[in-house]
């Protein structure tokens, strides 16, 4: 079920009515919330709910037995069982075809004509998200960061909680399970602010990502010939805005939905295009994934505790795997690899030159933020391109290595993309060190209502509604 | 204190608590609702004043609803596949009066009927009759403007089915603005922006039809009555044959051959299971006729296609009763004309079906 659909609107109204119905015990409401979450997920493809159940049961029991035993080898076996089960499902559905194709190419390179069987498998929506979320639970128990949940119901709800089930934020068990213990007491402020965040998220998705930017990015990345530099740049900039507004739109809606029900979810984005440097970028972009990778991959690999060379290797491994998490394609691996490289170079420069006082002034900060944004855009080329040939073509134009390409974007697309990106960058910069709630608090109520009403109006007349969120495919 | 996963003895941090701004939520809420209702009301009024009325959307879900009928007990029905001319020119109400049974309308605007035809050939539930509308420039090029529909049907999710029902129940019958052609960015895109040198502009085809619940389409009143709108529709058609892509034109003979092969295979498969197939080439007028009937001359397309498939065909140029209709924008019939045309076409189609049976 898509947030940006009428079906979801009706679904949510029903869920909310039951959630706030008087005289119904919290336990019954939790059951309802759990079943509603299964309906939400099953509305895409009912059989895939079984995968959720398998993941839930596997991690419930492995964590439970792991917590009970002090025998290290037994704990390790249980952790291994959880990892194999979770990553096995993820691997089968997401990477099976990729592995087969690469194996075929490898065989072909040594002269063996191997024809793999057809691998026509549908990817369960959001599998990468809930797999990481359940793995965090078992890993936390293994690392003795947390106790297992007291009740199966709370744990099952943690795995399945519909607002963030399919595209995050990837919530840690310690952040969410305790919130299920007692019925949250929602204030009018939480309810109102939650509704506003839902509207903001849908505005980002429907109006900005799908309405203004997607047509530009699609036109550029589907074009076959060489493009004029301006077009290549605008297509890539449009994609940078599209993917942000699409993904941040989803998580903002998820946070709003949860808040309307009285639950708090963590931030997943903090104005990433105002980042100064790449470690700053990853503190602001897809925060729940970057912290997951940091806590469960980078630090266990040794983090920065084993010398500079090992730190660079750990950074690169983490980011390469982070790239692969996004999709079974080498273009995603290159995307992750570039980010790993940027982080390593940044760390090297910091070690070599330290923090310069010259970097403190606002103009320099703006310049550094723009440089960061430039390099981030280079990575988006690989993320968006279907293949390396397309990526090479776009990059050649962007880097002015080839300037004879054709312009393809119509005037409306040029101005709509350029204007939207300029406004987005300005908003990111102005809000980089502030919280949106703080800005809302300083806004007069009537003005706040005008802006909110205008956003709803623009959502309604844009008429978007059937475009899936980009991150669902991951 | 929480007793489970966040237990503080295991040093887990407390759950997050989101900051919530202090606001007069009542005032904010009232202003929001008033602004939303007032602006949306004004937008709806604007479009109604301009001539729009609520109509069902010719969506992927609407097509899927009709396609499903074949697998839900109507496998022996007459199915119409084709492009927009089949949608506008064959009126289902008139057909129903003549036959006593309503056909299933699966034609798709701007789209070759080949993929739906192949779908029917491969569907074991389908044992009815097929009328294949041929718009030469689409049929023989295999072009699929409504790719979305063809990709959607096999993958339709329960949520999409529910959404279709909700949209048809709560929105489409009541809101005139709820139409792809009136969506904000579609409207903005089609404004007369100064164009960049060297950029080819392809205008989007404007709204041409009104749609019923079972995809019985009629030419929109505005196309018949508003001369400026008619002229604009013609200008958009004209873009099709102005500055054609030379690469595409060079590849056309090969593409035509491929489409013929597809048609032959699909028809043979249908005929093998006893399904009768008739091809119909609907009238076309004005500059559109000059272009289409020349670029896709019948001796290179229509005639060999009938020969290869062995199926009968009805070409409007061969029947006086199929000529002389009013096509306000050269391609689709006016409402009253479509009724008259369906009445004239129906017996010819039945005759062809009959002759196919006799041959067998």
Notes on the protein architecture:
The complex is a heterodimer of chains A (474) and B (360). With 474 residues, chain A is an all-alpha fold. Chain A has 2 domains: 25-183, no CATH class; 190-473, no CATH class. Chain A is 69% helix and 0% strand. Chain A has helices spanning 6-19, 26-42, 49-68, 72-109, 127-142, 152-160, 173-176, 188-222, 229-260, 278-282, 287-298, 308-326, 330-353, 362-384, 388-398, 411-431, 436-442, 445-462. Chain A is globular, with a radius of gyration of 23 Å. The mean pLDDT of chain A is 92. By secondary structure, chain B is an alpha/beta fold. Helices cover 50% and strands 7% of the residues of chain B. Chain B is built from 15 helices and 7 strands. In chain B, a hairpin with a 5-residue loop joins strand 4 (209-211) and strand 5. In chain B, helix 5 packs parallel to helix 12 (246-272).
Q: What share of residues are in beta strands of chain A?
A: under 5%
Query: In CATH terms, what is the fold-level topology of chain B?
Result: Rossmann fold
Poorly predicted residue ranges of chain B:
1-9
What coarse outline of chain B follows from CA principal-axis ratios? globular
Residue share in helices of chain B?
40-55%
Largest sheet descriptor of chain A: none
User: Please, what is the average pLDDT of chain A?
Assistant: 92
* Discrete helix count of chain A: 18
> Judging from the principal axes of the Cα atoms, what is the shape of chain A?
globular
| Total beta strand runs of chain A | 0
Gyration radius of chain A, rounded: 23 Å
Mean pLDDT of chain B: 91
Q: How many separate helices of chain B?
A: 15
Oligomerization category of the chains in this entry: heterodimer
Termini separation of chain A comes to: 16 Å
The CATH top-level class label of chain B? Alpha Beta
